[in-house]
Automatic annotation (TrEMBL):
Protein name stated in the entry: SURF1-like protein
Methyltransferase is among the record's keywords: no
Protein family: Belongs to the SURF1 family.
Organism whose genome encodes this protein: Aureimonas flava
Lineage: Bacteria, Pseudomonadati, Pseudomonadota, Alphaproteobacteria, Hyphomicrobiales
GO cellular component, one term: plasma membrane
Subcellular location(s) per record: Cell membrane; Membrane
InterPro entries referenced in this protein's UniProt entry, alphabetically: Surf1/Shy1, Surf1/Surf4
Transmembrane segments annotated in the record for this chain: 206-227
Predominant localisation class: membrane
Amino acid sequence: MSLALFGAAGLVVFAVLVALGIWQVQRLHWKLDLIARVEARVAAPPAPPPSPAQWATFDGTAEEYRRVRLDGRFLNDRETFVQALTDLGAGFWVLTPLVMADGSTVLVNRGFVPPDRRDPASRAEGQTSGPVTVTGLLRLDEPGGGFLRSNDPANDRWYSRDVAAVAAARGLGPVAPFFVDEAAGETPGGFPVGGLTVVSFRNHHLVYALTWFSLAAMLAGAGAWIARDERRRRAAPRAGRKAR
């Protein structure tokens, strides 16, 4: 490869590396803005969730992790158990329909139970049958299943909180296109254990940006060294001829 062609290829790679670095800086600002918006939602006073009239135009990106308050009655006989791995160990999320005063239904993730608490009889105190007020965080639907594991409604095996599939399997009819993670300390008897929502975002964009910019700087330095060495080699024969 000629030096000119090598230099042109190096300039293309340099431009790509710089562009990747700039993109990661943009992603960093986007992520910081997202974190700030989510933290504000989590800290805000609870408000009613989107109404059925708003479900068709529901914008999850603008609503996720917003604190909400629900009033209604649980359909405890239609619980769904979703496999979960939490700080408390392996077990299940208990997803329970809540019928609100206006007749609409919202799935509520009441929290975590270990395998020995899956049977409702083992946590009878938490099977609230009367009117309840639930506060928690609005979460987005998780269709399909978990990592490498698909939901199997026919065999009642669930690996994600798939709102539409759960509603169909339990014969619930129309339900909200989201679910709500119940807050901690609201369940009599302590089970299910609520308030385990992990609000965390990976934010390595600054590291990625520095990596791309560093590679670009290294490439530029190598290119400068090669160009200087080439000039030195070309100048050497001329200097030899003059000396003779």
